[in-house]
Amino acid sequence: MEEESHKLSSKKEFDFASSSILSQVARGILVGLIVGITVGSFRFLIEEAFHFFQHLYQDQSNWFINVFIILIMYILIVFLSARLTRSDKDIKGSGIPQVEAELKGLMNLNWWSIIWKKYILGTLAIASGLMLGREGPSIQLGAVGGKGIAKWLKASPVEERSLIASGAAAGLAAAFNAPIAGLLFVVEEVYHHFSRFFWVSTLAASLVANFVSLLMFGLTPVLDMPDHIPQMRLDQYWIYLVMGLVLGISGYLYQKTVLNVGQVYDWIGKHLHLDRAYYPILAFILIIPIGLYLPHILGGGNQLILSLTEQSYTFQVLLAFFIIRFVWSMISFGSGLPGGIFLPILALGSLLGALMGTICLQLGLISQDQFPIFIILGMSGYFGAISKAPLTAMILVTEMVGDIRSLMPLGLVTLVAYIVMDLLKGAPVYEAMLEKMLPEEVDHHGEVTLIEIPVSDKIAGKQVHELNLPQNVLITTQIHNGKSQTVNGSTRMYLGDMIYLVIPKNEIGNVKDLLL
Q1: Three-state secondary structure string covering 383-424
Q2: Is the separation of the CB atoms in 62 and 55 below 8 Å?
Q3: What structural domains and CATH numbers belong to the chain?
Q4: Residue spans of the chain under pLDDT 70
Q5: What is the pLDDT of residues 53-76, one digit of tens each?
């Protein structure tokens, strides 16, 4: 195996080392263009179809006929879902855990199967009114799009993973008009480290995909807030600490619920003798009463978030909205239909922020014109706690609302929420989903690949023989001061350098944990 590893590493390493920054940028631009068009059209179709479903619910003049039409369409979606998810189970749910698994070498996604099946079924499921988000599927569509481009370019394994990560970031950028958040999310949640080739191609892909999205949807931010939101005084900053505490605890409860909602579906399915492929029928039946009486809170939640700044809801109404959105978000996601929790989490966070803002208003702690900042802080703190990706949460919300003046409060609330989640032993939600998804043993029949890892504080200053790597892992090269050097047992690792390893695919995650 060692001889085979050397042959693989020498060829792939040469291919990767010969790639210049300009070639990485060019590939990132290509990924951004393809993913921008794919995810942009996905987003457009979801919005148009969702307005159609919402109109059917809102039109009370023909409600009987409209409900009949909705039922027929829901039944068709259920049967289509059963057919497609049986043929490829990797299209189910958010898609982000599957992307993580691909980059860790634990899965080998069929890019073509996923890209068209997730596109079609995801459009129908998210547009149907279920409380699902478009961002998870957009990230997976972007990732498999990047993989498809890598296959077309016959890229090396290192470059293929870089293009998959670039596509994932471009997918988030196109879904939310948030290119920097796309880059940060992939670093914090998916790829887990920076490298020169990775961030250059990923940033290029994110910017191009965002540009395509802007051409399609305009320059207005996805969650355009009031032009001027007064900042809190320094003597009010203690409110941010309390807010972070509440959001952290609430995020922990959300995570525990979303990770176990599948067991509730299994229990119901067992007693109703319902095949798992037909679980979505339960979600559709339960969403109809919400659509008939509260059609404006259907869907991912961006309409609801925007309405919080435009209308004055009472505390009781906000609490009711939060409970309904929480329960039905779980019902929607647990069904297994393609759809994410990203936007639903932001919607729940905005409601929590609005609830706390309303309490502060009633106690006379803030003024009415300071209320909108609570909505922004709620989104960032809640998402930052649940995902355990605080930088992504801060920048994502900043880009979505189009206002950078709230970065200090965002940072404070999100940091406190993150710390609370960590103290409660909460794991990053997408990694926790991945652990539940994978079988105990993952076997790639000894298939090896080449990966790149930056030298971290954990191993800096050590010699190769001191790293205690598994026997089937081989470090081939270190890039030191811009120059490639062959590695042997006495080679010393230097902080910030890049090392290349030949490794079985199913060991990627373990070795990254060991070295990073």
Answers
A1: HHHHHCCHHHHHHHHHHHHCCCCCHHHHHHHHHHHHHHHHHC
A2: no
A3: 21-217 (1.10.3080.10), 234-276+290-437 (1.10.3080.10), 448-515 (3.30.70.1450)
A4: 1-19, 191-197, 226-228, 438-447, 450, 476-477, 480-484, 496, 516
A5: 999 999 888 888 999 999 999 999
